[in-house]
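Module 6 notes. Inverse folding takes a fixed backbone as the condition and produces residue identities as the prediction. Think of it as a translation problem where the source language is geometry and the target language is the twenty amino acids. Below is one complete input and output pair. Work through it position by position during the lab.
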């Protein structure tokens, strides 16, 4: 597979997809993951089985996976990698589907019949991991996909897989909005106004009173309203945004961890390290090392 290198030292993969191709399927068995952290200018659905103990990094998400893993990534910039880590399996099975879709509202996917798929693909700009229930629903179809010789039939089968996943419960995004550089979109103008304020002032000491006044609500009503719309408390949301920016700086800059701590609104380095490890599963130093070990250094 041809490769290129970006200036930010993440491997930029040149995929086998040609200009007129819609999708490319790679179905392989292997003993270990060796490919470095990378991104590419196409969408990707990646399925892995018999790989318990593998570490999966998508943006600033850092998790050790179980026996099965299915992730959809539709950002063209979001770095990702599956690392061998503690996996002892000698028969890892990986099915990767790389594809190009037009996500403009005027495209075919912008029509009402494809609404669920369209929404899922947009959400997957931050990386989307699927539940075990969803994986089992498409398990046989994924296994059969590479054996379909007719291109039209293969594409229709893949659309069915996406439709099943889009209508399944339990999926969750991986990278934070701030790390993935995704534009915040929100149905509620009040919540959008608050999110944009947090995104701009994440380095400042934000008070609940200030945020509730932006939404023209009492503090108690605003707290309930925010959690109802986002599924998170205001404080948890602020933490996620701050850590997203912190993780991006750990990857893209040589700033010290202390400097990053203060630039992201934390006044105490110990507290920053503790919160980062609780949320990301590793310390800021370990997070930076995971990326550097898997990057191509120019």
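Target side of the pair, the amino acids:
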């Amino acid at each position: 597979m041809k490769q290129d290198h970006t200036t930010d030292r993440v491997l930029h993969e040149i995929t086998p997809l040609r200009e007129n191709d819609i999708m490319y399927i790679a179905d392989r068995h292997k003993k270990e993951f060796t490919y470095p952290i990378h991104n590419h200018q196409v969408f990707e659905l990646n399925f892995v089985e018999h790989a318990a103990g593998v570490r999966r990094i998508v943006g600033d998400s850092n998790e050790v996976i179980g026996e099965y893993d299915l992730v959809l990534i539709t950002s063209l910039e979001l770095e990702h990698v599956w690392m061998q880590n503690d996996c002892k399996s000698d028969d890892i099975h990986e099915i990767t589907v790389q594809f190009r879709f037009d996500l403009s509202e005027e495209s075919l996917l912008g029509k009402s019949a494809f609404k669920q798929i369209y929404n899922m693909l947009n959400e997957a700009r931050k990386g989307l991991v699927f539940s075990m229930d969803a994986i089992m629903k498409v398990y046989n179809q994924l296994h059969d996909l590479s054996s379909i010789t007719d291109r039209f039939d293969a594409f229709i089968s893949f659309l069915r897989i996406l439709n099943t996943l889009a209508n399944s419960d339990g999926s969750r995004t991986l990278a934070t909005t701030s790390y993935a550089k995704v534009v915040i979109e929100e149905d509620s103008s009040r919540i959008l106004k608050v999110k944009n304020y947090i995104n701009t002032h994440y380095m400042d000491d934000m008070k609940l009173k200030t945020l509730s006044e932006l939404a023209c609500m009492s503090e108690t009503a605003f707290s309930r309203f925010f959690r109802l719309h986002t599924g998170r408390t205001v404080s948890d949301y602020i933490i996620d945004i701050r850590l997203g920016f912190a993780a991006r700086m750990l990857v893209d800059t040589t700033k010290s961890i202390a400097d990053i701590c203060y630039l992201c609104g934390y006044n105490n380095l110990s507290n920053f390290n503790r919160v980062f490890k609780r949320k990301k599963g590793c310390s800021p130093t370990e997070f930076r090392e995971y990326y550097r070990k898997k990057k191509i250094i120019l």
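Reference fact for the lab report: Residues 1-8 have pLDDT under 50 and may be disordered.
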